[in-house]
Amino acid sequence: MTQAPPTATYFQHLAEGRFMIQRSPSTGEWVFYPRMVAPVSGANDLEWVEPSGLGTVYAVTVKRAKPPAPNVSIAIVELDEGPRMMSHVQGIEADQVRIGMRVRARIVDGLDDNKIVVFEPEAAA
Amino acid sequence: MTSSPFPRGKVSIVGATTFGQGRAPGFQSSDLAAIAARDALAQAGLTPADVDGLFFCHPTDTFGGLSFAQYLGIHPTITDNSRVGGSAFQAYVEQATFLLDAGLIDVALIAFGNNQATATGKLATTIYPMTYEAPYKPINPVSSYALAAARHMHQYGTTQEQLGEVALAARSWAQMNPEAFKRDPLDMETYMASRTVSSPLKVLDCCLVTDGAAAIVLTRTDRARDLIARPVAVLGAASATTHREISWMEDLTVTAAKDSGARAYAAAGVTASDIDVVQVYDAFTINTILFLEDLGFCPKGEGGRFVEGGAIAPGGRLPVNTNGGGLSCCHPGMYGLFTLVEAIRQLRGECGTRQVTDPHLAIAHGNGGVLSSQATVILGSPETI
Questions:
Q1: Which residues form the ChsH2 C-terminal OB-fold domain (chain A) (predicted)?
Q2: Do B150 and A85 touch (CB under 8 A)?
Q3: Are residues A76 and A111 in the same domain?
Q4: Chain B 10-39, CB below 8 Å of chain A: which residues?
Q5: B11-121+210-233 belongs to which CATH class?
Q6: Same-domain check for residues A64 and A113
Q7: Residue B123 confidence (pLDDT) above 80
Q8: Using 50, 70 and 90 to split pLDDT, how confident is the model at B1?
Q9: A113 to chain B nearest CA, in Å?
Q10: What is the pLDDT of residues B59-76, one digit of tens each?
């Protein structure tokens, strides 16, 4: 399983409607972004696992758009399993996204053919 | 205290200059760097033929070091065009010092030039988009630094006005620097009213996009004394890397400057309270606050309050970025070398109305990527050796 190219595998999972990241059984660490070699330990045992999809906003910035285009939030979300990822928090005004806010992952269409993971407030889900 | 392997004071700077800060129409990047290199070498009575260690960053040429050696018509024994962002130049000082002290080279030239403003009007870059950030279209590098600023505000109560204080101080210094690109007056009202790019960062929190070149020349201190009257000593230098993209920075409020700074101070045998003049890479206003904290000028989280009331502006308690910084003097894509040149000029007493009174110790801190790579150099007057 670890021999499949990690980036292609990640986006293939998303295309199938599954948000999957990696974990190294020997260290117990969850890993994002997908790699062939576990960070720090160098372990060769990364396997694909499904995180809870829950996380907390660690930092957020709002990209100001020219009206009428809406402002867009760019957040760093810390997954409950540990790793962080950049994403959008949607389903709420960009200016209302707060650090510490509990969020839940959702898979949506990205800019190209790929699906991407975004988040929305946990309460709204 | 563990002893530092750094050859403290064994290497000195005998030439330092800038060229074309702001707009330098018609020149290629290498032309600008060559002019600065020629002038820096001339300060010590040297020519390109004397250079056997070349440390060079070109804004877009992967083989920049080779191209610049060819331009100068020299065959260096050490050619380094490693790229760790704007901190590359501090890292070059660190490495050149070891190489000079070991006798592998005799004269090191560190040079940089960029014609981005007049050539394209945009930040010249070869940065590779990151697969797992690019889909969210951050306005990089602004959004990455904005995330760090937002986190600092959340964790420590840092305010928009405190960010503004950094911009105002930089502008006040720039007004005393004839080479600075932005010299019109700036007040808090104007700062607060300026457009937000990526919250909390406004246009006036962001560094300039300019042309510019700089160069410095290093040699062993014994030879340096024969070349010029008052060489500037390299007392300490250290580097550290923590991440590439902001999403993988462990703590957005603590940079690797804490580590590079601690090792540079240990090498120099000094502490922050000994430093007379401070130059830090202010790509954004939050940088100055983070680096003042991480380099020990104030406790972690206190940077915003530290800069209040004009404390780092002319006449304040600590002179910071006395040329006007990347915010108001120049920012030709990579600014690290300009912090070194200004620190050297202050120690040589060349700074006219912005001259700090009788400084003996200066710090020049470089930042690369998105707070990713940090490198610190501590410089001293001949008396500090």
A1: 48-107
A2: no
A3: yes
A4: none
A5: alpha beta
A6: yes
A7: no
A8: very low
A9: 11
A10: 999 999 999 999 999 999
* CATH class name, domain B141-181+236-384: alpha beta
Q: Which domain holds residue A41?
A: 6-49
Taking Cα atoms as reference points, which of B100, B337, B84, B363 lies closest to residue B237? B363
| Window B:307-346, CB contacts with A under 8 Å | none
Predicted pLDDT of residue A124: 65
How far is residue B105's CA from residue B101's CA, in Å, rounded to a whole number? 8
CA dihedral A6, A7, A10, A13 (to 10 degrees): -100
CA terminus-to-terminus distance, chain B: 20
Q: Where are the domains of chain B?
A: 11-121+210-233, 141-181+236-384
Beta strand B78-80 with B53-57: parallel, antiparallel or unpaired? parallel
CB of B243 within 8 Å of a chain A CB? The answer is: no
CB A103 within 8 A of CB A54: yes
Number of domains in chain A: 2
pTM above 0.95, yes or no: yes
| Whether residue B138 has a cis bond before it, omega within 30° of 0 | no
Same domain for A83 and A41: no
**Is the per-residue pLDDT at B30 higher than 60?**
yes
- Contacts A74 to B, Cβ<8 Å: 136-138, 143, 147, 198
Domain B11-121+210-233 and domain B141-181+236-384 have a common topology: yes
Could A110 and B133 be called an inter-chain contact, meaning their C-beta atoms sit closer than 8 Å? Answer: no
pLDDT at residue B193 in the model? 98
CB proximity under 8 Å: B 124-163 to A = 131-133, 135-139, 143, 146-148, 150-151, 154
| A contacts of B139 (beta carbons < 8 Å) | 63
Question: Which parts of chain A have pLDDT scores under 50?
Answer: 1-2
Q: Do both A108 and A72 map to the same domain?
A: yes
CATH code: domain of residue A111: 2.40.50.840
How big is chain B, counted in residues?
385
Residues A64 and A118 in one domain: yes
